[in-house]
Give the backbone structure.
Amino acid sequence: MYIVEGNIGAGKSTFITLLSSYLPHITYSLEPVDTWAQQNYGKSLLEQFYTDPHRWAYTIETLAMLCRSRDYLGKNTHSPFHVMERSLYSGHYCFALNGKEEGYFTTVEWDVYQQWVDFIFASKSTPPSGFIYLRTTPSICNARIAKRNRNGESGIPLDYLEKIHHWHEQFLMHKAGITPEIGAVPVLVLDVTEDFVNNPTRMAELAQKVARFMKENELIVKKDRNILTCGAN
């Protein structure tokens, strides 16, 4: 399993959709954004979070972790050539940790959330084969969010995107504050600042990098397995 990560508005859903036409032998799944973007009492949970994060951070992060854990655990037993949008890891290391640092959680809320995360990470989840980090600037993400006009995202401030960008950098570039198992997962960094939606040449280049990353990574895994097998003999 490979996970496509990146800031809000980086272009993850679009990238995966386009990637499927270049690498059709791979299976794909998108983030269940509609689950927390559904309208309830006139507002989506996303919209309520951006309006009042102190009230809604625990609710949305717990629901997001539940959905991502369910989808991740359900897909993790499939072919290694499966690409999934965002993971329970970025949900925790980027979004939830940002909420904690910003003071959006009460002490009790964070303790309950952390117990849930510790249980999932320790006993239920297997690290992915690799992360594919769609990296760009917060300002580019902000422009793309405005252009796509997705339900519940109109209230996202640039300052929030800058903070989420920081946490993605800590998680995927510096591998700071993460478990050793996740720190050992290889990361393919793709610069998506340039428009790849209307530029087939650029998209083809990115797809080739993904294919090469997967191929090389699988060769390393097979080599390690052979070494372990020989050692056992």
